[in-house]
Amino acid sequence: MPNGPDAPGILVVDASVVVALVAAQAARTATLAGRIGSASLHAPAILPIEVDSALRGLERGGRLSAAQASAARLHAHALPIELWPWELLADRAWALRANLSTYDAGYVALAERLGGTLLTGDRRIASARVAGCPIEVVRI
């Protein structure tokens, strides 16, 4: 099945996308949910840690109340995202270390492994031009 904006396919979602999906304004959440549609969602097993850290930052920065951050966290952890063990991604992520953070490289490695598209709010990942997979940058 082809991947890209018009095909469901396989999507690897990073923490920026998940946080926007569960904590952004309703219009932005609806746009992201529409893009994700019926795609099969995947992420490295580090995703929940990154999401929790980002939500903590939003709470500490006053952008979310404690109740909003807790609700967003529960929502994020309930999303149907298949988490993949780091051990399967570590070697490729390490190979990308000159151009990407280890965290970002893990998402790229998974998208490459699955033949999917990486959905991210981080333009730097696409700008690195080292990924062997499609990268779709969404406005967060």
TrEMBL record:
GO terms for molecular function: hydrolase activity; magnesium ion binding; RNA nuclease activity; toxin activity. The keyword Nuclease applies. Pfam families: PIN. Signal peptide: none annotated. Its cofactor is Mg(2+). Residues 12-128 form the PIN domain. Mg(2+) binds at D14, D104. Keywords: Hydrolase, Magnesium, Metal-binding, Nuclease, Toxin, Toxin-antitoxin system. Its EC number is 3.1.-.-. InterPro entries: PIN-like_dom_sf (IPR029060), PIN_dom (IPR002716), PIN_Pae0151-like (IPR044153), TypeII_TA_RNase_PINc/VapC (IPR051619), VapC_family (IPR022907). It comes from the Bacteria. CDD domains: PIN_Pae0151-like. Coiled coil: none annotated. Toxic component of a toxin-antitoxin (TA) system. An RNase. Belongs to the PINc/VapC protein family. PANTHER family: EXONUCLEASE VAPC9 (PTHR35901:SF1), RIBONUCLEASE VAPC3 (PTHR35901). This is Ribonuclease VapC. It comes from Microbacterium trichothecenolyticum (Aureobacterium trichothecenolyticum).
